Amino acid sequence: MSNNNKKKTSLIIRIPLFIIVFTVISFILYFTIMSIISTSRKISEINSNFSFKQIEKTSIDERFFTDSTFVELQKEKAFIQSRIAMAATDSIGLTLNLRDSLALLEINGVVVHKSKISYLRICKAFNKANSFAVATMLSSPLNIVKDTATIKKMPLTVRMAPKDTSEYVPYVPDTSHSEPVNYILELNNGIRLFIYQQELDKSEDFHNQIEFDLTDRVKNTITALRKIKKFEVPEYRLYIKIRIPKDDAKIIYRAIPRKGLITIYW
């Protein structure tokens, strides 16, 4: 083959490859920019909706609301207000005390179950948004609007009744099946609470947790891509991820109502 033919062949191969690489890089850059815009928009939304609104004919210095001491007091006040409002519902609710790494089940303000949080991760938007605004947003209980879980909310056991006492066999629950416990609680204000079991001793527990998390990521990525395809900014979802003992995670999930309330102290 002549040198000219070799150059033409090489050029034919390089051009499509260059186009593919350029397209992929451009898409990744575009996706990254849209994601940054989405995060910034969410932060601006929180600041706009929950920051201090200056009342007419007042001269309060807004720097007062960024003072660390005042913000800490506002966080404590918001936490107390939210717990009082949740206690008034006469329903079981979940309190997340992220300061002390505790997950608490409460009824009428009384703690009926306590679990230690072994791992905690909060999205950056919580820290980048105005602290006073975030505290105000959390000053009332958050409603669960949807949940996704690896376990059933209310497990059912179907058993055939014996015809007479001679056929009666005492029921012994099957404890051999150890289902992984991981779930996501979708809250109002666009907050997502991820609760994972902390035990990963068995390979199936580890694989299930990876699969559960990956499935959620893929679903959210597809939703974002559909938005981006229409040149729309995808919605940024605030999130909190925690790990607690498996038994506690199961108790909490099955104890709180489907449309239950959650109080967060951060």
Q: What is the name of the CATH topology? A: L,D-transpeptidase catalytic domain-like
Assess the beta-strand content as a share of residues. 15-25%
In percent, how helical is the residue content?
Answer: 40-55%
Mean pLDDT across all amino acids:
84
Largest sheet: 9 strands, mixed
Domain module tally = 1
Strand order of the largest sheet: 3-2-1-9-5-6-7-8-4
Instruction: Give the C-level CATH assignment.
Output: Mainly Beta
Q: What is the count of helical runs?
A: 6
Overall shape: it is globular
The CATH architecture comes to Beta Barrel
Over the alpha carbons, how many angstroms does the gyration radius reach? Answer: 26 Å
Strand-and-helix sequence, N→C? HHEEEEHHEEEHEHE
List unreliable stretches of 5+ residues. Answer: 171-176
- Give the full name of the CATH homologous superfamily: L,D-transpeptidase catalytic domain-like
Class inferred from helices and paired strands: alpha+beta
Q: What's the count of strands?
A: 9
Distance between the termini: 71 Å
